[in-house]
Amino acid sequence: MAEKRVVHIVDDEETIRKAVAFTLRTAGFIIETYASGPEFLKIAGEAEIGCVILDMHMPDMDGLEVQAVLTQRNIDMPIVVLTGNGDVALAVQAMKAGAVDFLAKPIERAILLTAVDRAFGRIDRAESRALEEAEARMQIDLLTPRERDVLEGLAQGHPNKTIAYDLGISSRTVEVHRASLMAKLGAHTLSETLRIAFSAGMGKRS
């Protein structure tokens, strides 16, 4: 879980920036503000990972355009979109493009905090998945090449007999490798074994 909770507020209206910043700062968040999309995009690649509160209607570059550039640059920060007119079409567009929530101005404190909490929940889940994937890859590295071949076969959903045929070895040898790899992975069941394999990115070949 992220220890620092940084919120990037991107809105051309100073009164909105200040109001949203005050609400979130008093709730314990660290706040960075930007008066335009281009201003935020200049530093977005090096910015602290956090939630982005993004106004839809800005003169230089609207929120959807900023959102599109972030996606193109593979900058994966959850976005809460703001609009002054409750435009449903924009809401749908923003949500389809990955926005976590869509809030109409003026924004109620409780609704804002709920939306920001939801955004950080997405970050926490992503960090948890990344940690699980890294641990799984470290476990897979303990296996011999042949054990990895057998595990890949299991991840493909193949029975021992098929794995044996594909690898040119006996079913009994597959069973030995399977028992060995499960012991190395600390897995007691096939489902535990497969969870580790999938977390490490195995089983994706057709």
Labels describing this entry:
single chain; 206 residues; alpha/beta; Rossmann fold; Arc Repressor Mutant, subunit A; 2 domains; five-stranded parallel sheet; elongated
Strand-helix topology:
Layout: E1 6-10, H1 14-26, E2 30-34, H2 37-43, E3 51-55, H3 63-72, E4 79-83, H4 88-96, E5 101-104, H5 109-140, H6 145-155, H7 160-167, H8 171-185, H9 190-199
Parallel strand pairs: 1-2, 1-3, 3-4, 4-5
Describe the structure.
The protein is of the alpha/beta class. It folds into two domains: 6-131, Rossmann fold; 142-199, Orthogonal Bundle (Arc Repressor Mutant, subunit A). It contains nine helices and five strands. The protein has a five-stranded parallel beta sheet, sandwiched between helices. α1 links the parallel β1 (6-10) and β2. α6 packs across α8 and α7 crosses α8. The protein is elongated, with a radius of gyration of 24 Å. The two termini are 34 Å apart.
Give a nutshell description of this structure.
The chain is an alpha/beta fold and 206 residues long. It has 2 domains: 126 residues, Rossmann fold, CATH 3.40.50.2300; 58 residues, Winged helix-like DNA-binding domain superfamily/Winged helix DNA-binding domain (Arc Repressor Mutant, subunit A, Orthogonal Bundle), CATH 1.10.10.
